[in-house]
User: What shape does this take?
Amino acid sequence: MIQRAQLKQEAKGILREARVSPYLFTLLCLAITLVMNAIDEYTSLPATVERLLSADPRLAAELPPFLLNVSFPRLPAMFIDILVLLLTITLSAGVSLYHLGIRRREEMPYATLFDGFGMVGKVVAVGLLRAILIYLWSFLFIVPGIIAAYRYRFAMYNQLENPELSPIDALRMSRVQTSGFKGELFLLDLSFLGWMLLSVLTLGILSIWVSPYYQQTDVGYFRAIKSIKGIGLLPDGGDAPGRDPTGPEF
Assistant: This one.
């Protein structure tokens, strides 16, 4: 069994020793994400208002006048919507690269946030395939969807550590790695539930501190499970010998 308390303490130590502040790094990512989401919300506003009015025309008398006068072409709005989604996936990969790097005690500059663009095709493919698989499993009910989320949890880490992998192999590797550890990963998330609720109550401000703590602990679990399973890139940089890292199917 993985020692959760020990990994959490280790994560705190790694964050303290990071040569580039994980909190300023998170703040930078949060600021960029807020700007992107604001642009996305603005361009999507006419379609949102149209849906509201089609559901209840009486709302026109209650909505502020500026909402009724906002206009934006639908096709460019859809393009921006898709672009923001792809940028969000790529920036989240940059955050993961930062945390994987400081776990190795490397100096990870703020520009690391944009390093995901160096392998944007595979990064986006992993993010979209993972989302699609979770969505499809959710059709069976909520629980299979949750299990799928844990099954493919380490797919992005695998892709970032092993750029030569195909996105499908990164997902398959995660499936094998997390087999037998989904319950522990669920308990890990449960242990952060209080922090996440406090982050919501502080309008996301506390997440500047909570998010690095959570992600670095998650990386610690990733490293620990890789060591136990012998699947994936080991700390010395070599592939585990004599093991099939992917398996034949999802």
Notes: Confidence is low (pLDDT under 50) at residues 234-244. The chain has one domain: 4-229.
